[in-house]
Design goal:
mainly alpha, 77% helix
């Protein structure tokens, strides 16, 4: 796992999520669509990195997400929902929660990895 890559992707979301939130608050749904898709794909890349896998754009997302050891609960259902409906506020809420959950899972994975290195 490349810790800096995962950490950077999560930080990038934290820095930009308020912009997306503002689009939804101002009912500028179509303007929210592009960054929502971008950050959904960034989340998927973070999950690949977290699971020590190489990102493959042509893989079946549901199958891959279901095989991951480190992934938020129901991510194989939640991420495709976001990608199919990025202009909906509920998708933004889901994406924000997925990033929060991924950050916690990432912290756990780092601790477990350090513990294994010590043993």
């Amino acid at each position: 796992m490349k810790q800096n890559d995962v950490s950077k992707l999560i930080s990038d979301w934290k820095e930009n999520q308020q912009v997306i939130a503002a689009f939804f608050r101002e009912r500028r749904f179509q303007e929210a669509k592009k960054p929502m898709i971008h950050f959904s794909k960034q989340l998927v890349k973070a999950l690949y990195e977290l699971n020590n896998k190489s990102y493959q754009d042509d893989e079946d997302l549901n199958t891959v997400l279901a095989s991951f050891t480190y992934a938020p609960f129901n991510s194989q259902e939640r991420i495709p929902f976001i990608l199919e409906q990025p202009h909906q506020y509920h998708s933004y809420i889901q994406l924000n929660e997925l990033y929060k959950e991924t950050e916690k899972i990432y912290a756990k994975a780092v601790i477990l990895q350090k513990k294994q290195e010590v043993d």
